[in-house]
């Protein structure tokens, strides 16, 4: 990590090049120069925090190929959305460790699918050990905290306890905790001195109904309120520019005393603004570096990317 420069956050690891949320993806990200690796955290039935993009694991594991777990398929309503599949909270850690990760976007990233079946679901403890051994930070997200609290598997206490055990309990720790919800960040503020990041999307609002919308949270008054409990703002990158021009959100957040870490830079055309795409194939690689350079020029303090090698190069070129 280079002091004073924007931080490069490996989104689910180097997930553009390995199946996301695997130790292989995190290790590659570290090798490529990431400052922080990002695990999305969900609990097992026995209360162990593991890294998965969602607690529904149909798309990221081979669970459907395990006949012994066929009866675990269930329908749940999570953050107001009904879904059917297999969920981490219905498996013990030992059971989850019998599954293997697979690429979530195989049509978009077929090279990643070549690694299907090779990697386990990692625990938070394993990710902390990897980060400490390689002198990088971690940037965990608490996924669906209200939902998990409602089923008796709250995330916050276990997360804080594990971070504390690692020696991480104040703002000097190489850790940020992020959430799309508000109430759990306020609870965390009372539990730890670790820096907190309020995530916001370009549409909708927090699942805990703590604000009428994310848009309301991005007004001057809303940003001031976020600054009472969070260190920074994690906005969807589309909120930072319109038609290739700065919307002023970075400056507004800075005025409220907040750092800004937008998400998520991805190389494929489908994820890029029209001006940064190369050709018409949505799966083709576009000009992600150009988009990164523009947002870096707006003064962002760090950013999430599926491609940390290119992120580190863009960050260094912007100095």
Key descriptive features of the protein:
319 residues, alpha/beta, 4-stranded parallel beta sheet, 15 strands, globular
Short description:
With 319 residues, the protein is α/β, with parallel strands linked by helices. Helices cover 29% and strands 17% of the residues.
What does this structure look like?
The protein is an alpha/beta fold. It has a single domain, classed as Phosphatidylinositol (PI) phosphodiesterase (TIM Barrel, Alpha-Beta Barrel). Helices cover 29% and strands 17% of the residues. It has 12 helices and 15 strands. Strands 7-2-1-15 form a 4-stranded parallel sheet. Strands 9-10-11-14 form a 4-stranded parallel sheet. A 3-stranded mixed sheet has the order 4-3-8, covered by helices on one side. The protein is globular. The model has no long low-confidence stretch (mean pLDDT 97).
Write the layout of secondary structure elements.
Blueprint lengths: L6 E5 L11 H9 L4 E3 L1 E4 L5 E3 L22 E5 L2 E5 L7 H4 L13 H4 L10 H11 L2 E2 L2 E2 L2 H6 L5 H10 L10 E4 L3 H9 L3 E6 L13 H4 L2 H7 L5 E4 L5 E2 L2 E2 L2 H7 L3 E2 L27 H10 L4 E4 L2 H10 L2
Helix pairs in contact: 1-4, 11-12
Protein name: glycerophosphodiester phosphodiesterase
GO molecular function: glycerophosphodiester phosphodiesterase activity
Catalytic activity: a sn-glycero-3-phosphodiester + H2O = an alcohol + sn-glycerol 3-phosphate + H(+)
- Strand share of the residues? 15-25%
> Count of DSSP E strands?
15
Q: What is the CA-CA span between the terminal residues? A: 14 Å
CATH topology: TIM Barrel
Note poorly predicted spans: none
Q: Regarding CATH, which class?
A: Alpha Beta
